[in-house]
Amino acid sequence: MSETLRIQRHDTHVTATLDRPEKRNAIDQDLVDALHALCEALEDEPRTLILTGAGGTFAAGADIAQLRGRRAADARAGINTRCFERIRRLPMPVIAVIDGYALGGGAELAYAADIRIGTPSLKIGNPETGLGIIAAAGATWRLREIVGEPLAAEILLTGRVLDADEALAAGLVTRVAEPTEAMAEAEGIARRIAALDPAATQATKRALLAPREAHPDIDLEEQAVLFESPEKERRMTAFLERKKAR
Ligand code: COA
User: Fold this and answer.
1) Which fold has domain 5-194?
2) What does the angle CA 55 – CA 95 – CA 213 come to, to the nearest 5 degrees?
3) Whose CB among 28, 49, 52, 82 lies 3.0–4.6 Å from 97's, allowing a Cys bridge?
């Protein structure tokens, strides 16, 4: 049990709150270990994940105090990269509620989510080159996929931090709401997802994450499995019966 990653389990979803506000939720090894343990639990028992941060901050990046001491072998081990990639590949959707700063590794953790909701105080970007490193935990491919190459290049090459309006306009967040409302919206989305067929949701996520060259074969294979599923039969029959009953 980590003291800096607070986990609440609900029937429809799990909420994980980065809770190290005195360090602006900087992601240190303890947090990475706790995120891996959370992934293991969600891989065993798939459920939508809501990721958020305590104290008016999402996460101000990787922990610079630890980062300074890391060497080439640590870079190659991809401490944050592997962790965020595992979050990205969780079977069920991941929703990030991003309040305040999401910088560097904090931004990359948000980029790993499937759905991002911001708050009016959002400040998101990648100042890594100012610290003498690159954003190697997802920004160079994920941010480009999300906002397109021109804006991703500007953010990554200049360290420009976007506010909530700019992030919304760029599609980096799809909604902006006050913190309590943003959490309520995320919970509403999680409940909505929980009412759908989990096998279809997980298949959709796998297809969404597949590389371009895997399509359309992967879609057809996923669909082939679902076409044989009793749940598809049940859901489609229920729809048709409802129509008939009217
Ligand atoms: N790593 C380690 N510690 C961090 C941190 C990080 N990424 N971000 C903040 N902290 C620590 C500060 O060192 C400070 O610790 P202290 O109280 O022991 O001195 C504490 O968190 C509060 O930070 P502070 O800078 O005083 O808060 P602020 O509200 O004035 O500013 C930020 C907030 C996010 C603008 C500022 O902390 C910041 O720029 N952080 C680094 C952002 C960054 O470069 N991230 C990329 C890392 S890859």
Assistant:
1) 2-enoyl-CoA Hydratase; Chain A, domain 1 (3.90.226)
2) 140
3) 52
Spacing, Cα 60 to ligand 1 middle (Å): 6
User: What are the backbone angles phi and psi of residue 117, rounded to the nearest 5°?
Assistant: -120, 130
On the question of pLDDT at 129 being above 90, the answer is: yes
**pLDDT tens digits for 86-104?**
999 999 999 999 999 999 9
Q: Is the CB of 101 under 6 A from ligand 1?
A: yes
Say how far residue 188 (Cα) sits from the centre of its chain: 17
Ligand 1 pocket mutation, candidates 24, 111, 123, criterion most atoms within 8 A of CB: 24
Task: Give residue 246's pLDDT band: very low, low, confident or very high (50, 70, 90).
Answer: confident
Identify the pLDDT of residue 92: 98
Query: Model-level pTM?
Result: 0.97
- The residue ranges of every structural domain in the chain are 5-194, 198-245
